[in-house]
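User: Some background: our group keeps a shared notebook of sequences we're curious about, and every so often someone picks one and asks for a predicted structure to add to the entry. Today it's my turn. The entry only has the sequence so far, pasted here. Could you supply the structure so I can complete it?
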Amino acid sequence: MIDDHPIIIEGYQNTLLFTKKENQELEIDIANNCDEAIAYMDKSIQKGLPYNVLFVDISLPPSKDGVMSSGEDLAEYARRILPNTKIIILTMFNESFRIHNIIKTIDPEGFLIKSDLTSSELASAFQAVLNNPPFYSGTVNSHIRKTITSDIVVDIKNRKILHLLSQGVKTKNLASHLDISLSAVEKRKKHLRDIFEVSDGQDETLLNEARKKGFV
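Assistant: Of course. Here's the predicted structure to add to the notebook entry:
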């Protein structure tokens, strides 16, 4: 279990120990940051006892060498070195861009939004991930359904533009975030306005339409 808030980990731990099946034996290691998590994962391989399940919080302090900046990086590392380990992502983020990105890059067996989370849902998620993955929380499923039922296609760079605009980033600063020119940003924004049928040129109108379709 990887989370930088000990009281949250304690809650997860108590829930799983209280709700586990009679035939299940739980041994839980706890890491509070990326460096501790990497050390535990590497050690599990050296011992020939790779983890069955990893609970990974997305908001974590970066590793000391700067290579890992979040739980997303950690989960991608786990996918490479622990290919048979089931990954359950837990996060406060509920923006469509982050959810889409995590599913695309990590494809977790479990994906829980902390604001949705109850002890019974955590217990259900754990058993489902062990026996019949994936298990996604209501908010995650809602985002997936909205984008699947929409016939609109938005590529990853345009999704990032929508996400950054929703975070209050100005158009003139988007180019540096995306590593493209300002004229390329403007072209992409025009394309987004065409896709979402926005004619007034206002960012807020574009974001409102993108929200309705589940892209923000």
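Suggested note for the entry: The chain has two domains: 6-147, 156-212. Residues 89 and 111 are 5 Å apart (CA to CA).
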